């Protein structure tokens, strides 16, 4: 059985996917399921503020413990590094024209590094259950990293199950955030993505 490393942005996005992985396996790009040995990895160092980061991290930790599923947490917090990078490298005629592209790259690169060190065969991410994320860019970044690390990246469009996942999260009693995560997704008290 192949080993899957699932990047987890948060427990509410993971709950539906964990259930699907447990009962059916990983939904492949051709629509078939493959039974996999799965582990979830939390790595989201740019969630703002720190208290929100801790809350999402602890919710994920408690969820995985209750579900008795395999998981790990890279507990690194780097708001300053993230903001400095975005200010210097994101914008017109800069390395990235979109801060989310850098954010996906920065998080998924760490996940690929972890997968390489720990002999995983496949990588995917819970980001793709959210209709608020940019799926084309996630797929593009995942496929770039696939080539760089020689580990398969599977893009799964879970968006049709977003509402069901939210319902499951509410029933489970998970803390559910109102915005994507970074400081830029909180704009004058408006929560967004
Ligand atoms: S809005 Fe979300 S995906 Fe985009 S940069 Fe912020 S945290 Fe990352």
Number of domains: 1
- Can you name the CATH architecture? 3-Layer(aba) Sandwich
SSE series:
EHEEEHEHHEHEHEE
Radius of gyration: 16 Å
| Overall helicity | 40-55%
Text of the CATH class: Alpha Beta
Largest sheet properties: 5 strands, parallel
In this entry the ligands are:
iron/sulfur cluster
Strand order of the largest sheet: 5-4-1-6-7
Task: Tell me the overall shape.
Answer: globular
**What does the oligomeric state look like here?**
single chain
* CATH topology tier name: Rossmann fold
Q: How many angstroms separate the termini?
A: 36 Å
- Mean pLDDT, all residues: 95
What do you see in this structure?
With 193 residues, the chain is of the alpha/beta class. It has a single domain, classed as HUPs (Rossmann fold, 3-Layer(aba) Sandwich). Helix content is 45%, strand content 15%. The chain contains 6 helices and 9 strands. Strands 5-4-1-6-7 form a 5-stranded parallel sheet, sandwiched between helices. Strands 2-3 form a two-stranded antiparallel ribbon. Strands 8-9 form a two-stranded antiparallel sheet. The radius of gyration is 16 Å and the shape is globular. The chain starts with a strand and ends with a strand. Bound molecules: iron/sulfur cluster (SF4).
């Amino acid at each position: 059985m192949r080993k899957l490393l699932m990047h987890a942005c948060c427990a509410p996005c993971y709950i539906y996917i964990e259930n699907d992985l447990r009962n059916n396996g990983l939904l492949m790009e051709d629509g078939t399921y493959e039974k996999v040995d799965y582990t979830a990895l939390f790595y989201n160092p740019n969630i703002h503020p720190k208290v929100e980061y801790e809350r999402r991290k602890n919710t994920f930790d408690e969820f995985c413990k209750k579900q008795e599923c395999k998981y790990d947490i890279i507990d690194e917090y780097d708001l300053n590094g993230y903001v400095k990078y975005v200010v210097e490298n994101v914008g017109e005629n800069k390395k990235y024209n979109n801060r989310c592209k850098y954010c996906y790259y920065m998080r998924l690169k760490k996940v690929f590094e972890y997968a390489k060190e720990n002999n995983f065969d496949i990588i995917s991410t819970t980001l793709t259950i959210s209709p608020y994320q940019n799926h084309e860019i996630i797929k593009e970044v995942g496929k770039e990293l696939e080539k760089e690390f020689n580990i398969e990246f599977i893009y799964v469009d879970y968006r049709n199950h977003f509402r069901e996942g939210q319902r499951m999260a509410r029933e489970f009693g998970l803390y559910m955030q109102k915005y994507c995560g970074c400081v830029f997704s909180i704009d004058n008290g408006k929560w967004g993505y």
